[in-house]
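re: ur msg from earlier - yeah i can do the AHM complex, just paste it... oh wait u already did. ok heres what im feeding in:
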Amino acid sequence: MYTGIDQDHVKVMTIERHILEQERFHPEATGVLTSLLYDLALAGKIIASKTTRAGLAEILGRAEEVNVQGEQVMKLDKFADRTIYRLNDHTGRLAAMASEEHADVLVIPDRYPSGKYVLLYDPLDGSSNIDCNVPIGTIFSIFRRKSPGGEPASLEDCLQPGRDLVAAGYILYGTSTMMVYTTGQGVHGFTLDPSVGEFLLSHPNIRIPEKPKYFSVNLGYQIYWSKGVQCFTDYLQGKDDGIQGLSLRYIGSLVADFHRNLLSGGIFYYPADTRDPKKPHGKLRLLYECAPLSFIAEQAGGKGSDGRQNILDIQPESLHQRCPLFIGNKDLVEKAEEMIQRYDP
Ligand code: AHM
Ligand code: MG
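and the outut:
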């Protein structure tokens, strides 16, 4: 017999509702962060709708050319960059933005009000994979501005350590589109239902499984690594009393590699190497990639390190600073630190 609606049973948790419910943990909250996260979810939906059509660029016209409809076809990473900027420049929520695609801080135009947060983003990480239909992702970080309001935001507002992150997340454009975020109250994942155009809670309170399953690294560069990193890699392959039974999985698209290990357990690393003397700190960027993902990893029970210290403790010195990254299961990350300490003094 029908006995009425069981509220918990029918609760459909959209991302908007979830962010609003999270806001209640912060009685001082004004709702600005909630709106900002929702703007990013909207950017994710717009970018997702383009990424699924990326292959059609070949048919409809190459990037940077005019397509058959007479429109300029924009490269996807530029499109993603502009989408995020334009959805956020006028809202009064941000004091500045910085993007992996731009050398300098992106200011908020004078005609718009300035806000209390700073947004840093990698609009389309792994974009070299687009041509091969491999998953790609957007990564974002939100800090509170440090300089007093009423003045233009400065570079220092962007150069904050990961410990000061207010929120971080990513949008993964894969077999489905997912948004995963944290505001320091656990990590929550949402899957886009394309039929209704809404992100729905699919992965509440994500915790990295204690038993790791995967290690993820570009083994092609092994000869360029330090002794500590080589020994750690031997350990992951079960050599010399190392850990046994791990599988190697490497997509070469950070958001996808990180996401898989977040759900299944494991470690991703991109160490420093000697290939390019101009890049002694590896490839990945502290502010756009390493810090936000380390905040998420820590909130899920894991850790991010540069091999010597917690990524979240590093004070950035420049916007595009690179740093080695070891991220995932805490025990494995700490094992890497131990071996680097022992062999690479
Ligand atoms: P990008 O920011 O230019 O897209 O480069 C970052 C990407 C990451 O997604 C991925 O982890 C890494 O580059 C792969 O690099 P490699 O091909 O050297 O293994
Ligand atoms: Mg990137």
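cool cool. Residues 15-203 form a domain with the Fructose-1,6-Bisphosphatase; Chain A, domain 1 fold (CATH 3.30.540.10). ping me if u need the other ligands too
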